[in-house]
């Protein structure tokens, strides 16, 4: 995937979201720290606002209260009449849209970084929502280069039928940041350090951009979602197999799976082959290189 023309409008307003999922603690910890002392995230001429998105879920250390906050920023939910009968996260989404949006409006925040953890061994991962967003392609290339030799993967969630109404999607330039592996409700120092560096490099890129630095065309490699592959299930709809031991180990995420390779194992220890080539971050991802 390559970048072409980048907008010349300076970036003015940036938000850093933590706690969209209340049990993903790295973003929660960093945002709370920056709310107390935001010196390291400030850049000249740039408004940077750290923000806890789902405080009730953070307090209970759970993913969400009523529904996933990271899936309700669509026009239907944002347009509902505010009522106490609405799910908590829908009401919270409307509040966030009012503070940082409105979505698809010139007055919305320029960039929103949404901080997440995963139990998967995805390492440092940047999530891109639009393959034609040259500004973010340049930013991701800058972050990836700055982090080297630490790997940094880019996950493109653009898909014709699988839609994501993410919390960050109210911004002109939405950026998902996901770092793992880290168990839910746990804080790891190495994961925190990696996420902190990703934010630093991202803000450095914005500052360089605002100061007029030119960035030549670049290419990035992305992991693109092709389809979702469910677990094998029995006639009752119950899961009938688990991830094969050869694929389960932490160290074996992001490895190629050949056609016919056993990717699951049932309780009788028989391998279950998925006859589709895939490049496994989690089931359903394929590695794509676009020029």
Automatic annotation (TrEMBL):
Domain Succinylglutamate desuccinylase/Aspartoacylase catalytic: 11-206
Subcellular location: Cytoplasm
Active site annotation, chain numbering: 178
Cofactor: Zn(2+)
Keywords: Cytoplasm, Hydrolase, Metal-binding, Zinc
Bound cofactor: record note: Binds 1 zinc ion per subunit.
Pfam families found in the cross-reference section: AstE_AspA_cat
Annotated residues for binding of Zn(2+): 21, 24, 116
Taxonomy, superkingdom: Eukaryota
GO molecular function: hydrolase activity, acting on carbon-nitrogen (but not peptide) bonds, in linear amides; hydrolase activity, acting on ester bonds; metal ion binding
Entry GO CC: cytosol
PANTHER family: ASPARTOACYLASE
Annotated family: Belongs to the AspA/AstE family. Aspartoacylase subfamily.
NCBIfam families: PRK02259.1 (NF002601)
Protein name as it appears in the record: Aspartoacylase isoform X2
